[in-house]
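Dear support,

We are seeing what looks like truncated structure output for some complexes. This example has two components. We would appreciate it if you could run it in full and send us the complete token output so we can diff it against ours.
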Amino acid sequence: MPRMDKVELLAAAFMFAVGVFFFVGALDYQVGTMARTGPGFLPLALGIAAMILGVLIAIAARGQETRWPELAPRALVAVLGAILAFALLLPRLGLVPSIVITVLIAVTGNRDATPLFAVVTAVLLSFACWLLFIQGLGLSIPAFRNPF
Amino acid sequence: MDLWANILIGLDTAITPNNLLYCFLGVFLGTFFGVLPGVGSLAAVSMLLPITFYLEPTTALVMLAGVYYGAEYGGSTSSILLNLPGTPSNAVTCLDGYPMTQQGRAGVALLVTTLASFFGGSIGIIALFALAPLIVKWALVFGPAEYFALMLFGLVAAATVTQDKPAKGLAMVVFGMALGTVGTHLATGAPRYTYGYAELRDGINFIALAMGLFGVSEMILSLTRTVNKPFNQKVSLRSMIPTRDEARRTFLPMLRGAGIGGLFGALPGTGPSIGTFVGYALEKRIAREPERFGKGAIEGIASPESANNAAVQTAFIPTLTLGIPGSATMAVMMGALLIHGISPGPGLMNSNPEIFWGLAVSFWIGNVLLLALNIPLIGLWVRVLKIPYAILYPAVICLICIGVYTVRNSVLDVGLVMMFGLLGYALRLMRFELAPILIGFILGPMVEENFRRAMQIYRGDWLVIASRPIAGTLLALTVLMLLWTLWSVVRRRRRGGLVSPLAGD
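Here is the complete output from our reference environment:
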């Protein structure tokens, strides 16, 4: 077997999977005829195109090998976790507590942050958001909300 | 329609104290976000969109447009000083801008990029004034077949023109178009890929997609790099004065850059980044000593920056006259127009001339303001670069979350930002380009609808579409572009194939 670029193969597999997903989904919708295309027409065509492109990327992956990219689990979890926390907490606690918790989670992505730094940043940013969005722009988000 | 009359209509709207104030606010905030590495014009416009909900439509657009081109001006500052592009379209400026900083010529580089930006922006605005009325006249004979062919051409151009691996570029366009099919099918009302989520019936929220793919994934990557390179060079006004030789070598690249950028900006889908790459490649190819490039050649920053800002201005041409966004950021601007109840398209210039021409005149006022902001006040922006990333990124997360939430008061959209952030990060690790996803996503539904209408009119007969002069030419160009791409890939592999067996061992 010729040498393959693993990262490119993964990219090819991803595209092929996208193609399969949209192709299979499109089978539930009406394709119609050329003169009267239905809701399934474009997704079906795109699914086929994505599968073909997946194969093409795999063919192009022959040749040089490259190293796996380095993962950054700490930054990934901190940033995504902060956003998820905001989405879950905003309807329950209101803007100010949500921002405090979001910032506390986000700050853990930074190796050098001390607890004092985290608390000060969270307080300052929640105050700034309250000032800008609720006092300044009058957005209709409650600042605090009783969760019970 | 008389050019002077149009300028007067525009001046009447743009010069009111309120619009001037928001124009200044827009370019100021735009420059601020542009200077910050990792916050591009797309993220800046999306984050500031909720602020404009309460303004008059024209004022809101004047401000958002100011944020857009302001960010492109500011983006070159961090490219030059830190070797980190402020926005994706300033990436090319790093190649020769950062070496100039290492040689102690940062001041000259900053002055030249500002002047080139102003020059390119002005050319772009002139093109907008001259071409927009003509295109509106043309657009009246545009049917669905022409719209379809034009958008297909733009999509293929966006995916292949500067791509190292065109199959991956096309793959991302296809992926974007596929994401665009989520939601209700326009013609029949059938829901697609919604899986019972009522909110997905309106489709995936574009702002959530853009912020997740670009803003969030970029942040994760920035956190893993050591970002805070110290920058301790002093940039004084005196250090900005170029030598006579540098001044002489700046003008022609600036002119060529403006032409190239203006052209790519006006094409739907291709946007400013491609113009900067092509502009740089052209300068390198025609230079007498191409080996100077990458080591601080002034042509290498003058041409792309001029191209970038020309493209930003001409990107408004297809958006305002045809209703087809020229770039991803333009799509957010178009969303802003729709939120304010204005539908861009051939009718806008006649039904709301004060909005159209007022906006166009405000661009030029904004560009003059940017000249003032970027030359005497450069010290301020250098200081902005000293804000530690540790404070910056939690603030940006808050702005993204609140910004996305307020677009339609939906926490599901905030959850989608997280999902697309993860997806964007994974795609970056797989070395995919992300911009074509957004372009495919925006143009996808329009391509679908126009294709459906064209096929209905011509009873499913391809040949009739291909034989219409404008549509046929565009389709032929699209096919040629695909064939040329295929040929160049095969040629490169043949050449590469001779070298690579040795290179690996």
